[in-house]
Amino acid sequence: MTALVDEHPRLGVECVLRELHIPSSTYYRWRRAEEEPCERRRRDVELTGRIKEIHAESGGVYGSPRVHAVLSREGVHVGRKRVERLMREADIAGISPRRKGFTRRDPKATLAPDLVERDFTASAPNRLWVTDLTMISTGEGPLWLSAIRDAFSRRVVAWETSARADADLVLTTLEYALASREVEPGKLIHHADHGCQYTSIKLTTRLVRAGVQTSMGSVGDSFDNALAENLWMLIKTECVRGRVFATRAEANLALFEYIDGFYNCRRTQERLGWLSPIEFEEKHYTKQATAEPTNLNTRQPSLIS
């Protein structure tokens, strides 16, 4: 309204206000509010600036829940509704996922039972791993991505890419995961779908040698391997969508920056108490270490008879 009055200075303030049926006291109150904003409005400007920074640092991924969580971790006391309003006024928004499946079943393969039954929870790291394949388009042709995700912390424990979606790709991913994690034989479940890569002799033999239990859901059913499908939605939404990769190497670099540089170490998740996967695991191990009995006061048997 004040801008409209300023656009017609020759008419005079009172004349414009009279035509618009607006009391002059109301106009001058608005004018004072613009020239001397109240504390809440000044605070909104400060918050909006920090919200824009958080949103940019996430690569444009974070919506209001995660922005609010980051502000809370920084000690900023602000309501979630206020964050939503400021993001809406600043035209800032997160992004939403899409999905598409690619694995194919081998009708002749021997299938493992479903040991998970859609319960993608674990009491500790390295108790349940979920895995799957997806495809990323590049100018050189398809780039196949294989990844293994820990159900406890949602961490991507290993990932690998290849121009071919074969058993060697998923086997290499498994080798990386086994090499980077402390796996107790007999305590880990490796869950996949019925894709021919996961029913291959190469992979099943390696799992047996490592003492890992094999579990399988069905092909084409996103619920049977929901945790792995969720990872693809995140990657396709937050890393791949809207980008054109000229080469496979370019796509590989983008995946590295997202998975190892952002998702595992910095991307907060509501189910993890707004911690990143690595932070959640560190918290678990710290709690476990402090809970161990010291046994410092345990009496030793006397040597004097």
From TrEMBL:
Entry-linked SUPFAM superfamilies: Ribonuclease H-like
Coiled-coil ranges per UniProt: none
Domain of life: Bacteria
Domain Integrase catalytic: 121-285
Alphabetical list of Gene3D superfamilies matching this protein: Ribonuclease H-like superfamily/Ribonuclease H (3.30.420.10)
Free-text function comment from the UniProt entry: Involved in the transposition of the insertion sequence.
Protein name, entry field: IS3 family transposase
Organism: Streptomyces yaanensis
